[in-house]
Amino acid sequence: xxxxxxxxxxxxxxxxxxxxxxxxxxxxxxxxxxxxxxxxxxxxxxxxxxxxxxxxxxxxxxxxxxxxxxxxxxxxxxxxxxxxxxxxxxxxxxxxxxxxxxxxxxxxxxxxxxxxxxxxxxxxxxxxxxxxxxxxxxxxxxxxxxxxxxxxxxxxxxxxxxxxxxxx
Length: 168
Fold this sequence. Notes:
Layout: H1 2-48, E1 50-58, E2 64-72, E3 83-85, E4 102-114, E5 120-123, E6 128-132, E7 140-155, E8 165-166
Parallel strand pairs: 1-6
Antiparallel strand pairs: 1-2, 2-8, 3-7, 4-5, 4-6, 4-7
């Protein structure tokens, strides 16, 4: 009988210890999950403060390259005017530099841009193009989705900041 009580007590002690150990192991997991959830929420909040962007720029050798990044959503941009366009001018069908520093906001269509070193990127609605490759060979593009490219051109004022933040 003493042996049975001793075994029962020992079993109860092990069960309690196991539950305590499991609880202690789960605590860091809970904290980690809470941190990840908070981080995810913070990332979502951070993402709503920016719009995805791609910036075309001139390289020292007269070529054109690009970088991926973002622009802030609540910053007022120093621009001059804007207009819409849904046709393609003759000069746009071949390699060309941007006629001015400008934001290009795609409303409809998806395009694959190609820069002088052969690298490509895609612009679609929701991604702002910042065209700053105003000299040299420039860039080309092809419509890859849709029948027309509907866009807004928003030129930057002289010496205005583009507010582009490169992704590292």
